[in-house]
Amino acid sequence: MSVEAERLLELSRRADWTFPTSSGPPLRPGELEPWAEELLAARGDLAPAATALDRADAAELGANAWRIWMVTRELDNGRAFLAAALDGSGGTPRHRALALYGDGLLAFWTGAYDDSRQANETALALAGEAADDQALTLAHLGLWRSCFGTADYEQAREHAQEALAHAASLSPAMSQAPLHGVGQSMRFMGDLDGAAEFLAESLALNRRIDDAGMVVVELHNLGHVELHRGNLDAARRLFEELGSLGPADDPYGVVMTHLNAGALALAEGDPNQAAAELEAADTSLAESGIELAPDDRFELERLREQLAD
Predict the structure, then answer these.
(1) Angle formed by the axes of helices 176-189 and 133-149, to 10°?
(2) Contact 25, 58 (CB under 8 A)
(3) For residue 300, how far is the Cα from the chain centroid?
(4) Which of 74, 214, 270, 277 is in Cβ range 3.0-4.6 Å of 261 for a Cys bridge?
(5) What's the confidence (pLDDT) of residue 261?
(6) Alpha carbon distance 149, 191 (integer Å)
(7) How confident is the model at residue 185 (pLDDT cuts 50, 70, 90)?
(8) 35 and 151 in contact (C-beta within 8 Å)?
(9) Per-residue pLDDT tens for 103-143?
(10) Within 10 Å of residue 220's Cβ, how many Cβ atoms?
(11) 22-42: b (≥16 Cβ within 10 Å) or e
């Protein structure tokens, strides 16, 4: 075992991720404490370190450090690191479960959905063996994503609820994605009242833990749920607050701004304005080439179908 590998393992033990269940950046923008800066700078050395360590320590390094590639979005490099960390069968069930959850999330974002599901199914078995609430929260959360992505919303809700139950004894941030998952699953099962309750709770939690990105996401999601419930005033307030946070400066945000304005305009009885917003959303999509998330794609198609009637 090299001295550098031991140093990186000790460094990884200092990792304290602000948003540990997030499927996006696990740290606030610009929030890089010394341990994060060191891990970021040394990320090219982490896979060799995992190879140099004994198998138990390698699995622990994988469990502790994989989120650095969610900071950089170098997803394939992150998966290569985890392949080195998980090579063989060594490591505690807890560490292997946490590292496998990471591999499942990275695989999900690269479109390797079968790999993602398999990693999380194995993670769930190991987390159960360890009887560890953090590992169980994350493994169920990973399976929520897999089920939601294949439109198995009832199974998705069950996994999200299990994740939420295991997160209850942990830090508030561990409930972040589980709350979102329950709300989104209920939304697409047609339980709009239940979805509104959980998404509102998710919005409140994200305000408390100061995740500005997820505040934006939940204002958007809850606004559409309120539109579907016929609560135009509530939807308008949510979209207005969303707009007050500043103009969208990324292609996805621009599309969502037009989608939200169009859906609200149609609900308020102005199909011409709704059509103009839909056209603007479609133009932005074509120019950017971005892929919409399933829930946003649903809302865009719903607006298009309503205008075609």
Answers:
(1) 30
(2) no
(3) 21
(4) 277
(5) 96
(6) 18
(7) very high
(8) no
(9) 999 999 999 999 999 999 999 999 999 999 999 999 999 99
(10) 22
(11) bbebbbeeeeeeeebebbeeb
